Amino acid sequence: MTFTICRSWKATILQQFTKHFLLIGHYHSAGVPGRNEIYKGEINYLPIIEAIDKSGYNGYFGLEYWPSEAEESSLTQTLQFLKSK
């Protein structure tokens, strides 16, 4: 199952993750709104990423977004953000 992180659920993202994490084989994310970098926008990804790590998941965490700045800078800053947790 792909777990697309978005803000349209009635339950919180962490509640959805907790309910379904044994079924998840891939995470898919982007910043909200605008599908930009995950360190920008309304969703705080750090607690989500920490919960994924604590679950023992060792698969892919996909990023499908439109860079809002130069692509190399965007990827560098996104990687730094993901490692900052």
Walkthrough of the structure:
The structure is a single chain. This protein has 85 residues and is of the alpha/beta class. The protein has one domain (2-83). It has helices at 13-20, 45-54, 71-83, and strands spanning 2-4, 26-29, 60-63. It has a 3-stranded parallel sheet, with no helix packed on it. The mean pLDDT is 83.
Strand order of the largest sheet: 1-2-3
Rg over C-alpha atoms, rounded to the nearest angstrom: 13 Å
Which sheet architecture does the biggest sheet show?
Answer: 3 strands, parallel
Number of DSSP-assigned strands: 3
**Roughly what is the average pLDDT, rounded to an integer?**
83
Calculate the terminal CA-CA distance, rounded to whole Å: 25 Å
> Beta-strand level of the residues, as a percent range?
5-15%
Oligomer: single chain
| Count of separate DSSP helical elements | 3
How many domains? The number is 1
Uncertain stretches of 5 or more adjacent residues: none
List the helices and strands and how they pair.
Blueprint: E1 2-4, H1 13-20, E2 26-29, H2 45-54, E3 60-63, H3 71-83
Parallel strand pairs: 1-2, 2-3
